[in-house]
Design a protein that fits this description.
By secondary structure, the chain is of the alpha/beta class. The protein contains 18 helices and 22 strands. The protein is elongated, with a radius of gyration of 28 Å.
C-alpha cells in the first residue's frame, strides 16, 4: 500500500474549495484557509485546480488530492480528461480524483481510460468519486486505488439522499478491498468519528469547515426552525406490532400509529411495517405543521452503537440480525436516526419522562415474553460494548434449572416471564379456558383473575415473585441502584405484586435494613419504547 494512504489512515482531510462567484474563490484566500486547516491538524487537503495546488505545494508537503472541476451544459464533472489530470500532477497533486459514476458525458475521456493513463504516465494513485455501490465496485475493478462517497446525493439515481449515506459506507466496507474516503454531507465531529467506526479509511470534510457562507446559513436555518422545541418521531418495534408517534420534549406522545409487525414473514415484512408506521406519523405531522428533528427506533435485540445495526436478534424477529437499521432509516426518511434496544428505551423513558427524573442510578425491568433491562448510572444509559448491557433476564439464579431460550439453564427469564406464569398457573391447577387462546391473552386473563382474588392465579404470581426477588436482590448487590422500576403488561394493574416483591428483596439483601431497597412500578406505559427512542434524538441535541 502507498505510504500516502498509510499517512491518511484514520485522519481528517480538509477540502479547501469555493463555489463559483464565492468571495473566497481566490488563490490567496484558498491558501490561507488551507494553512488554517493544517494548523488545526488536517492530515491532507483536497483542492480544486492546478493553480491552487501549485500555491499550496509551496507551503506544505502534506498529501493533496487534486481535482479539476468542469462546469458545462451536462452539469459538473470532476477531472474530465487526461490533460486536466496531467496539469494537477505537474502542480504537485499526490492523488488524482475522478468522477467515476455511471453518468454519460458528451465530451471528455472515459474514466476507465483515465485511471489507466494516470497510473502508467503520471505514476499517481487515483481516487474514484462515486455515488452508488455498483459504481464503487466498478471503479475498484478498473484499478482505482481508493474510493470516495463524494457524489452520493448529487446524481440522478441518488438525488433524494440529503445526508451522508451510512448504508453505502457499510456496504462498501464489507465489499471493497481498497481505502474508503468518507466524503459528502459530513457536518460534525461526531459524524466523522462515526464514519471511521463504520469502516472509512479517512474522512474528507469541506463545507462544514471551509465555507463561511454555508456554515452561517446552517446556523440561521437552525434558529429559524425553533429546533429547541421541535418534536421527534419515536418507534417501538415489537414481535406483534410496531408503534410510532410524534413525541414532544415533555414526553407527550401525539399522532400515534400502530401496524402489525408480521415478523413471521421475515426482515422485509418488518421493514415494510416500519416504513408504514413512520410514514403515517410523518403525514399526520405535516398536516399539523410539525417538523420532526429526528427519528428514534427501539427494537428487540442488541444494537451495535457504532452503526446502529442489529448486532443480534431474538427469535421473535426472524431475519432481523445484521440489518443496518439506522442507515436504512436515515436514507429512507431523510432524518437523523438513532436505534436502541427496546428494554433500554424503557429506561430512557423513565429517565426523561418518569420516575427517573429524580434519580441518577436506577434499573428498569420490563417483564413480558422475557425480561429486558435498562440500566441508568450517573444519569446515562449503560449500553455495553456490544449493546447487551441490561440482559438481566439471562443471569442464572438456579444452576442446572429450567432451560432458557438463550441456551443456558436456570436463567431468571425461565422463571419470570409469560411462559413461566402460565406454567405456574397450570401446575397449581388453574383452569385454562377451552378453545384456542394464545399465551399473551391467557396471561392477561391470569392477571385479571389474580386481581379478582382467584387462588391459583395469585399463587402463580407469588411463585414468580420469589424468583424475581432473587434476581432483583442480585441487581442491588451488583450495581447498588437507588431504585429498581418494574414495568410490562404481565404486572400491569396488579397493584399488590410490586410491594410484595420489594418486601422479599429486603429480606434477601445483606444489610437490607440499612439500605432499604426501593422497588417501584415504572410510570412508563404502553408507549415507553416510543418515548425512549425519541429521547435519543433529544439527547443528541443536548
Amino acid at each position: 500500500m502507498s505510504a500516502i494512504f498509510k499517512q491518511l489512515k484514520g485522519r481528517l482531510i480538509v477540502s479547501c474549495q469555493a463555489s463559483p462567484g464565492d468571495p473566497l474563490e481566490d488563490t490567496n484566500a484558498i491558501r490561507r484557509i488551507a494553512l488554517a486547516a493544517i494548523g488545526g491538524g488536517a492530515a491532507g487537503l483536497r483542492v480544486n485546480s492546478a493553480e491552487h495546488i501549485a500555491a499550496l505545494r509551496r507551503d506544505t508537503k502534506l498529501p493533496i488530492i487534486g481535482i479539476q472541476k468542469q462546469y458545462g451544459p451536462a452539469g459538473l464533472r470532476i477531472t474530465p480528461d487526461f490533460a486536466a489530470a496531467a496539469a494537477l500532477a505537474a502542480a504537485g497533486a499526490s492523488i488524482i480524483a475522478l468522477d467515476c459514476t455511471n453518468r454519460v458525458w458528451p465530451d471528455g475521456d472515459p474514466w476507465q481510460m483515465l485511471i489507466e493513463r494516470i497510473h502508467q504516465e503520471l505514476r499517481l494513485p487515483v481516487m474514484a468519486d462515486i455515488a452508488t455501490l455498483d459504481e464503487a465496485l466498478a471503479a475498484t475493478a478498473a484499478g482505482a486505488d481508493c474510493v470516495g462517497t463524494t457524489l452520493n446525493g448529487y446524481t440522478e439515481r441518488t438525488r433524494d439522499n440529503q445526508g451522508f449515506s451510512w448504508t453505502l459506507l457499510v456496504q462498501m466496507a464489507q465489499q471493497l478491498h481498497v481505502p474508503i474516503m468518507a466524503e459528502g454531507h459530513i457536518s460534525t465531529p461526531k459524524e466523522a468519528r462515526r464514519a471511521i467506526d463504520g469502516g472509512a479509511w479517512c474522512v474528507i470534510v469541506g463545507s462544514a469547515i471551509t465555507r463561511p457562507g454555508v456554515i452561517t446559513a446552517n446556523f440561521v436555518d437552525a434558529l429559524e426552525q425553533s429546533g429547541s422545541s421541535a418534536p421527534a418521531i419515536g418507534v417501538d418495534i415489537g414481535g406483534t406490532s410496531i408503534k410510532a408517534g410524534l413525541v414532544q420534549r415533555s414526553g407527550e406522545v401525539l399522532l400515534t400509529s400502530q401496524t402489525p409487525t408480521d415478523a413471521g414473514k421475515g426482515c422485509d415484512a418488518i421493514i415494510a411495517g416500519l416504513v408504514q408506521a413512520v410514514e403515517q406519523v410523518l403525514a399526520a405531522a405535516r398536516d399539523k405543521h410539525f417538523q420532526p428533528v429526528g427519528l428514534g427506533i427501539a427494537t428487540a435485540g442488541a444494537i451495535d452503537h457504532r452503526d446502529g445495526s442489529i448486532f443480534a436478534a431474538t427469535d421473535n424477529l426472524p431475519g432481523w440480525a445484521g440489518f443496518q437499521l439506522r442507515g436504512f432509516a436515515e436514507e429512507r426518511f431523510h432524518l437523523p436516526a438513532f436505534a436502541v434496544n427496546d428494554a433500554q428505551a424503557a429506561g430512557l423513558s423513565e429517565l426523561y419522562f418518569g420516575l427517573g427524573r429524580s434519580l441518577s442510578d436506577f434499573v428498569v425491568l420490563t417483564i413480558g415474553t422475557g425480561i429486558g433491562g435498562g440500566i441508568v448510572t450517573g444519569g446515562r444509559l449503560l449500553r455495553g460494548q456490544h449493546g447487551f448491557a441490561g440482559s438481566i433476564g439471562h443471569g442464572v439464579i438456579c444452576a442446572g434449572g429450567r432451560p432458557c431460550n438463550c441456551g443456558r439453564n436456570g436463567c431468571l427469564e425461565a422463571y419470570v416471564s409469560t411462559a413461566a406464569l402460565l406454567r405456574n398457573y397450570r401446575e397449581l391447577g388453574g383452569a385454562v379456558p377451552e378453545g384456542k387462546i394464545d399465551d399473551a391473552d391467557l396471561a392477561l386473563k391470569i392477571n385479571h383473575l389474580a386481581r379478582s382474588g382467584d387462588a391459583a392465579a395469585q399463587k402463580a404470581y407469588a411463585v414468580m415473585s420469589e424468583f424475581l426477588a432473587e434476581g432483583i436482590a442480585n441487581l442491588f448487590n451488583l450495581v447498588d441502584p437507588q431504585a429498581v422500576l418494574l414495568s410490562g403488561g404481565l404486572i400491569e394493574e396488579y397493584t399488590q405484586f410490586v410491594p410484595g416483591v420489594e418486601k422479599q428483596v429486603a429480606k434477601l439483601l445483606h444489610f437490607g435494613t440499612k439500605r432499604q431497597p426501593q422497588v417501584r412500578t415504572a410510570k412508563a406505559g404502553r408507549f415507553a419504547g416510543v418515548q425512549g427512542a425519541a429521547a435519543l434524538v433529544f439527547e443528541s441535541g443536548r
